[in-house]
Amino acid sequence: MDYQQILEEIHTEVKPVITQGKVADYIPKLAAVPLNKFGMAVQTLDGKLFSVGDADEYFSIQSISKAHTLILALQFAGENNLLKRVGREPSGNPFNSLVQLEYENGIPRNPFINAGAMVLVDIILSHSKDAVQTILKFVRDRSNNQNIDFDKEVAASEKSTGFRNAALANFLKSYGNLENDVEDVLDIYFSQCSLSMNCIDLARSFMILANHGLSPWSGKQIISKSQAKRINSLMLTCGTYDAVGDFAYRVGLPGKSGVGGGIVALIPGRLCVAVWSPGLNSSGNSLAGTQALELFTTKTGKSIF
Ligand code: GLU
Questions:
Q1: Which fold has domain 3-300?
Q2: For a substitution probing ligand 1, which of 95, 101, 154, 257 has the most ligand atoms within 8 Å of its CB?
Q3: Cα–chain center distance at 279
Q4: Which of 17, 259, 264, 273 is catalytic?
Q5: Is 189 designated active site?
Q6: CA distance 2 to 57
Q7: pLDDT tens digits for 24-73?
Q8: How far apart are CA 211 and CA 229, in angstroms?
Q9: Residue 95: pLDDT band with limits 50, 70, 90
């Protein structure tokens, strides 16, 4: 399949919508990102890489990092322990909802809403003293790029306005669903969200999920085939905010998005695809990115269905 030709067609077709979204402005540093960016990369399991536009430009991956920390937390705690503390149902609510967390007694609906991701951080921190470095090493190894780093300015910017996240973390603590200090969990959470990566890194960082748990770079089995299946299922049902039904309907792939405008999706056994365009739709998913992925599955005729 000529993925390069398809990516170029997609780039041309989405151009009119690239500037129609709105950058996330509740994190001051993200508000300054130019709206006119678009990049897309495909990494196939048979080792081919295709890319278009700003695919090698670094941006803030934000909530896409929750897929990485879910893999780590699963490795550390095991499935049964994890599922005692985080659910596996779509939330149908904004990713930072306080209301739902209260009426469900401090058990976040799923690992991809902010409260769920904070529980993942707590698990990682309980198993690893230097949780920030553990997360960084994991993402670098998964992407096969040791130059990936956090963006300390983005993390500080989010911390300075992260009152709602602080409220969520305090709620979790009050319900006994955080073992560690609220401040520590929040600092690690803001750091993981500030990871700066490009579309190529991101597509590569999800390869174990497309490859039944096996790293294509090291040849090692990082998670089991069954765990990869479960994480992909969670991304399909919970990975793209409360527009997850619309995303599944239009794209037909498991994926994880972030308010930096990135989305990573994958076809098990075949490829990972990452797209970035910072203008978001009203649900917080990249506007042009969602359209690009819809065009990708339409033009290639490949999805999981
Ligand atoms: N750091 C962002 C927050 O906590 C992540 C949001 C996102 O990408 O969904 O609000």
A1: Beta-lactamase (3.40.710)
A2: 95
A3: 16
A4: 259
A5: yes
A6: 23
A7: 999 999 999 999 999 999 999 999 999 999 999 999 999 999 999 999 99
A8: 10
A9: confident
Long-range CB pairs of 170-175 (<8 Å, 24+ gap) are 171/98, 171/101, 171/102, 171/106, 171/115, 172/101, 172/106, 172/108, 172/115, 172/118, 172/119, 172/122, 174/106, 175/105, 175/106, 175/107
Among 106, 83, 93, residue whose Cα is nearest residue 171 = 106
Catalytic residue among 42, 60, 86, 241: 241
Q: What is the pLDDT of residue 92?
A: 86
Ligand 1 atom 2: the closest Cα is on which residue? 62
Q: Which two tokens stand for residue 170?
A: 């305090």
Q: What is the pTM of this model?
A: 0.97
Token pair belonging to 56? 């090698």
Q: Tell me what pLDDT residue 270 has.
A: 98
Amino acid at 85: R
| Cβ contact 277:38 at 8 Å | yes
Ligand 1 is surrounded, with C-beta below 6 A, by: 62-63, 95-96, 114, 158, 165, 193, 258-259, 284
Which residues on adjacent β-strands are paired with residue 251? none
- H/E element, 15: helix 3-18
